[in-house]
Amino acid sequence: MNQEIDFIQCKPSISIDFTMQDLPKFKNEPNIVVLFGFPYDEGTIRNKGRAGGENGYEQIMLVLKQKLKECNIQQKVIHVGYVPKQLTLEDAHEYLYQHIAEIYYQLPQAKVIVIGGSNDQSYPNFKGLVDGMQCKKLGVINIDSHLDVRPLINQNQSHSGSPFRNMLEDVERFQNSKFVEFAIKGCTCSYDHYQYVLNKGGKVYFMEKDIRRLNAENQGLSAMNNVLTEFENDQNIDFIFLSFDVDSINSAWCPGVSAPSIVGGLTNIEALSIMERAKKSNKIKLIDLSEFNPAVECERTSNLISEMIITFIL
């Protein structure tokens, strides 16, 4: 992995800020990445996590724009807004779903990165991809310390621990898709939830049992390469959705999350390497980044996440 940018060849970037109404202007742009924001942490709070993630998107965009000024990016990058903060979580999910679907309807060639915010964003993002691209054959990868298949609460309310249960129970949209849980920490998930994933046809890669035992210098990248290669070679999979909960990264490099990985977790190099590998995939259409909490720690974590995004778009 090329971990350094050649700043001698870099040049200032133009503004990336546009609106949803500007999308048709880019219909002939072959390589385009669209950024969208989900500034909500209500799902984390409902799941008894720490508040503060609602400001993660804004902080990442601030750092990202500064870094992009020094990068000669190879793909067109546009930022077309975010979910308004004043909505209920249920209305925010609907707003997110409708706008992600609209992005794909307007720009079917686009790759989309959604910046959260809490991990409950992943289900509306999934729906937006399926409906916007009119596809029902996805490979879905959840990079996370947690399985996130908890039951809904309080009269069917979604939360940060439930997005992939929502997805797996959405039979109409998910029935022809495949699902992988990656970098899971066994101590953070129940056996019942593990069995639930298996019963739904999913695969689980545990951090210690499956990834750390690989005979490879970059174990996280090696394991992810196996998953992506399998999906890429599967003729029954049209696109890949990569959901990256940054609490899967060890807190030495990524401390600003609602539930830090004190022991274990991916390294910063593994996280960046996974994003670089994702960039090379011709099937990845959607990435979401979740659970950055600047109220816990801001500078180190926002820099890492922005560099992960830049690694994907350079």
UniProtKB/TrEMBL annotation:
Xref: InterPro entries: Ureohydrolase
Keyword terms of this UniProt record: Hydrolase, Metal-binding
Coiled coil regions, renumbered to chain: none
GO BP term (any one): putrescine biosynthetic process from arginine, via agmatine
Keyword Hydrolase part of the UniProt annotation: yes
GO molecular function: agmatinase activity; metal ion binding
Family as reported in the entry's similarity comment: Belongs to the arginase family.
Species assigned in the record: Paramecium pentaurelia
Protein name (record): Arginase
Record has Hydrolase as a keyword: yes
PANTHER family with a match to the protein in the record: ARGINASE/AGMATINASE, GUANIDINO ACID HYDROLASE, MITOCHONDRIAL
Domain of life: Eukaryota
